[in-house]
Amino acid sequence: WALLSILFFVDEVRSQDKSDWCSWTGVTVNYKINDRMRLMSKTEVRTKDNISDFERFFINGGVGYKVLPKWELRGVLAYHRRSSSSKGDYNAYRYHIGSEASWKYGDFKIQWRERFQHTYLLEENELLIRSRLKFDYYIPSSMLAPYFSVETFNNVRNGSFFNSDRVRYTPGMRVKLSETYSVSAFYCRQDDGAKKSNIAGVEFFINL
Q1: Is-contact 19 200, C-beta < 8 A?
Q2: Percentage helix, strand, coil, to 5, in the chain?
Q3: In 86-101, which positions are buried (b, 16+ CB within 10 angstroms) versus exposed (e)?
Q4: What would the pLDDT profile of 109-168 be if each residue is shown by its tens digit?
Q5: Which one, 149, 176, 190, 195, has least CB within 10 Å?
Q6: Measured between alpha carbons, how far is 12 from 24 in angstroms, rounded to an integer?
Q7: How far apart are CA 98 and CA 91, in angstroms?
Q8: CA distance 107 to 152
Q9: Which helix (H) or strand (E) holds 28?
């Protein structure tokens, strides 16, 4: 029912909004080495132009290390294959480093993530600071966990650090299928200033 509710919400927004619709479909794998360290990898395919055209594929891999029980440092390398009407098909490479802190109060959880991201694409370099605040609610005696996050993207080079170039608002629902597997369905409203995008997404999680 939770997944059906999100799909109904997405369909209602789509019928009333003329901005572009996109889809994101991903798989994330986490491998726990010990109580402090884990390996992680994510693969994702994205579409654009009302889910009619390929936008990008990426795969990444990295490591997370808990310096404190609720504070983790992360480093990730990624390869992207992208497509655009102006540049055609091309490769992009990215690394990002950052940290995430979390606090849990009863059935509620708050996560704050800061990330420095450097992307190499064609002749260009993109440097961003990404800040995300996420709220989760774990419904008692249930496998459902609704959440909401807000993420801002700030360009390091354009001199407007406190003016976000992009903002993402993401409500979603995560379903814990077992101790190893879970799935998340979400809607994301992306605001790039003059351009607005609606994103319908599904992400599968495997925790080993």
Answers
A1: no
A2: 5, 70, 20
A3: eeeeeebebebebbbe
A4: 999 999 999 999 877 889 999 999 999 999 999 999 999 999 999 988 776 666 788 999
A5: 195
A6: 19
A7: 24
A8: 26
A9: strand 20-32
CA distances to 32, 50, 155, 193 from 164, in Å: 34, 25, 8, 9
Torsion of CA 194, 163, 59, 65, to 10 degrees: -160
8-state DSSP, 158: S
- Dist CA 48 CA 60 (whole Å): 21
Interstrand relation of 37-48 and 108-121 (parallel, antiparallel or unpaired): unpaired
How far apart, in whole angstroms, are the C-alpha atoms of residue 130 and residue 108?
23
User: In this structure, are residues 9 and 187 in contact, taking their beta carbons and an 8 Å threshold?
Assistant: yes
DSSP state of 12: H
pTM: predicted TM-score of the whole model, two decimal places: 0.88
The string of DSSP codes covering 48-116 is ETTTTEEEEEEEEEEEEEEEETTEEEEEEEEEEEEEETTTEEEEEEEEEEEEEEEEEETTEEEEEEEEE
